[in-house]
């Protein structure tokens, strides 16, 4: 059987026939007209939990965090429960983290309108598996901070929380052009944090830290690219205290989220849209070019495709967000020779408009290996709801990836 090819021209989304035949595709209940940015984990009692953000449209103040669970053996997810309530901010990118003491943490961002440079990172915790929660509070000092990936607990018990910094270029509204990554480290269960820089990480965001294969101090990180070129990768050999500069992998990236997890087999699993700006027929100015707030007139958006006065690159928005693919690696993410397209479609994302159902992206995936070894995937379906897919590692491992994947080159 031939490897699936990159696809950017299908009129409608289509899950893989194997998954449909196995009854492995189900949708979570919608929460308003828009749902986006799912994250999965297994709770202590065995339930699969998912958080995402939903409301009218990303960046508007009715966007908040939602939580649902799937009991083992159940055919449907529980009715969603709202976990955030700030009526003045758009609350986004939720993640779940079970701490070593059993406490369940919700971590998410909260920003004013489309200004990610105003975002703060907040949290709340639960001691009963999400039935009740304490009051929300700011987790990290400062603003312009964003999260997407869950913390990793280091061998010595320290918590490693990857963060990307959102900064607007002088005189312009935020558009992702000056974003980079840092790692926050806590030795007191999240009470205080220190920051470790990721050198030369401009444009490399959504840092995802996973264990490496060369001992407990070896860590790997994978990144989304604001330039919509490649998934990037860096390493640490001292438990995250210092990092190599992110380098491109052979996997294309479209300036949309990716997630990587270390499997029990030792492989890495990556979920992403393996397309790039090279696959785009058009681009948009910014992620938030459809919404404005009162102070936006004084800070315009950059022109699409232009470089600012300093000659810097600007973030590329609008590359197709499809297919949704699962890739596997046996060499710590240097190569990804196994691939399955979980769902295909044209991935149209030149608008975030869910009310008129104009967006057709398959994006922002989460991948999690459950206690039974199966892979649990969740991702955005056309920004209308979250789709949940279950598959076996062997299903992806049997199919070699497209041999035509080019090796990346540095600009």
From TrEMBL:
Domain Sialidase as annotated: residue spans: 46-376
PANTHER family: BNR/ASP-BOX REPEAT FAMILY PROTEIN, BNR_ASP-BOX REPEAT FAMILY PROTEIN
Record-given protein name: Glycosyl hydrolase
Cited Gene3D superfamilies: 2.120.10.10
Superkingdom of the organism of origin: Bacteria
Keywords from the UniProt entry: Hydrolase
SUPFAM superfamilies: Sialidases
Annotated InterPro entries: Sialidase, Sialidase_sf
Keyword Secreted assigned: no
Biological source species: Ideonella livida
UniProt GO molecular function: hydrolase activity
């Amino acid at each position: 059987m031939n490897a699936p090819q990159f696809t950017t021209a299908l009129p409608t989304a289509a899950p893989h026939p194997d998954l449909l035949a196995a009854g492995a595709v189900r949708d979570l209940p919608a929460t308003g007209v828009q749902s986006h940015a799912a994250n999965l984990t297994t709770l202590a009692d065995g339930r699969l939990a998912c958080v995402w953000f939903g409301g009218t449209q990303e960046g508007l103040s009715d966007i908040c965090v939602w939580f649902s669970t799937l009991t083992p053996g159940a055919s449907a997810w529980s009715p969603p429960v709202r976990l955030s309530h700030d009526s003045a901010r758009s609350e986004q990118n939720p993640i779940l983290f079970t701490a070593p003491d059993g406490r369940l943490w919700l971590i998410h961002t909260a920003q004013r309108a489309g200004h990610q440079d105003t975002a703060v990172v907040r949290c709340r915790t639960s001691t009963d598996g999400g039935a009740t929660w304490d009051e929300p509070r700011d987790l990290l000092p400062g603003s312009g901070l964003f999260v997407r990936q869950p913390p990793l607990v280091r061998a010595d018990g320290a918590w490693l929380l990857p963060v990307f910094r959102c900064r607007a270029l002088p005189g312009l509204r935020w558009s992702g052009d000056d974003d980079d990554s840092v790692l926050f480290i806590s030795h007191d269960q999240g009470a205080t944090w220190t920051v470790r820089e990721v050198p030369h990480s401009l444009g490399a965001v959504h840092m995802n830290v996973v264990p490496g294969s060369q001992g407990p101090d070896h860590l790997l990180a994978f990144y989304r690219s604001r330039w919509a070129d490649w998934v990037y990768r860096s390493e640490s050999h001292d438990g995250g205290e210092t990092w190599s500069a992110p380098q491109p992998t052979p996997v294309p990236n479209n300036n949309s989220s990716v997630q990587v997890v270390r499997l029990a087999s030792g492989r890495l699993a990556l979920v992403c849209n393996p397309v790039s700006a090279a696959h785009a027929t058009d681009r948009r100015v910014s992620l938030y070019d459809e919404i404005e707030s009162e102070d936006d007139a004084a800070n315009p958006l950059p022109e699409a495709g232009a470089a600012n006065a300093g000659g810097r690159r600007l973030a590329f928005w609008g590359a197709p967000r499809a297919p949704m693919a699962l890739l596997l690696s046996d060499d710590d993410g240097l190569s990804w020779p196994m691939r399955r397209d979980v769902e295909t479609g044209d991935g149209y994302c030149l608008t975030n408009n869910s009310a008129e159902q104009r967006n057709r992206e398959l994006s922002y995936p989460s991948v999690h290996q459950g206690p039974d070894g199966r892979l649990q995937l969740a991702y955005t379906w056309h920004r209308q709801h979250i789709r949940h897919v279950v598959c076996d590692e062997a299903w992806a491992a049997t199919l070699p990836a497209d041999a035509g994947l080019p090796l990346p080159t540095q600009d």
